[in-house]
Amino acid sequence: MKKILILGGTGDAVKLAAKLATIPKIEVISSLAGRTKKPSALVGQVRIGGFGGAEGLANYLQENSIDFLIDVTHPCAGQITINGSIAAKATNIPHLMLVRPQWEKMSGDNWIEVESLEFAATAIPNSINRVFITSGRQQLKPFLQRSQVYPETWYLMRSIDPPDIELPNSEVLLDRGPFSFEQEYQLLQNYRIQAIVSKNSGGDATYAKIIAARELGIPIIMVQRPAMPEGKKVTSIEDAIAWVKLKTSKL
Ligand SMILES: NC(=O)c1ccc[n+]([C@@H]2O[C@H](COP(=O)([O-])OP(=O)(O)OC[C@H]3O[C@@H](n4cnc5c(N)ncnc54)[C@H](OP(=O)(O)O)[C@@H]3O)[C@@H](O)[C@H]2O)c1
Prior knowledge:
This protein is of the alpha/beta class and 251 residues long. The chain folds into 2 domains: 2-100 and 227-249, NAD(P)-binding Rossmann-like Domain (Rossmann fold); 111-223, Rossmann fold (3-Layer(aba) Sandwich). Helix content is 33%, strand content 22%. The protein is built from 8 helices and 12 strands. The protein has helices spanning 11-20, 53-63, 78-91, 117-123, 141-149, 181-190, 208-216, 237-249, and strands at 2-7, 26-32, 45-48, 68-71, 95-98, 111-114, 130-133, 154-159, 170-174, 195-199, 220-223, 233-234. Helix 4 (117-123) packs parallel to helix 5 (141-149) and helix 6 (181-190) crosses helix 7. It binds NADP nicotinamide-adenine-dinucleotide phosphate. Residues 7-10, 31-33, 35, 50-53, 56-57, 73-74, 76-80, 83, 136, 199 line the site of NADP nicotinamide-adenine-dinucleotide phosphate.
């Protein structure tokens, strides 16, 4: 048996675990940070919680005799990806990063591209009073600070679990993607949204809001991804499976 540790927390990680589990002589362990109360069902073993930095991850890889490490975390989860890269190098374990391609700006898109959520909060034009936050429930502090300066701005916040911070002038929508174009178009119109805050997550599951915003001429404050460490990368589940098959055939 060959053991694969998947660093997960994304829909692609769920799909990859299910596909790898069908390959003979492969044992899959998925690792989750533990942020979501009811994570999507996973095929194979699951472990939950941080490792204790790159060193803790390296120890885990050795203690559990992991043969391959595949990072399928969200492209904006910069720290765990750095830790994965360091731990794989330290233990000499083959390491792959599955990174979905980022969304590219198209004709008709009105994106204000920023480096972080702190910059996103400051980049919302003062004239805008109704903002749709789709960048997650855990980094709302910059918007709380903005709401102290611009209390008239109203926020719609969408996340899987309730946010840690409550924005004063806001509504929370608890929902999990994928979202259709019709859903997103209706939502933007019903709530009279004037700007969207999004991370450049890439992939299809949450792209409908980008198309709906384009159609409605709504600007998007788009948070860029952090830089990725050096190392082997693929952009699809199929290519990740091909990598595993190639690696296992050489053993
Ligand atoms: N950031 C996003 O926008 C976003 C969106 C959707 C899903 N997610 C998922 O949510 C998780 C947390 O995201 P984040 O942005 O907080 O990550 P992060 O900043 O890169 O990681 C912070 C710490 O959380 C722990 N951690 C993160 N992912 C882990 C995993 N898969 N298994 C075990 N421990 C993990 C690690 O703790 P230790 O140092 O103690 O090991 C890591 O140092 C990720 O797994 C990611 O795939 C993130």
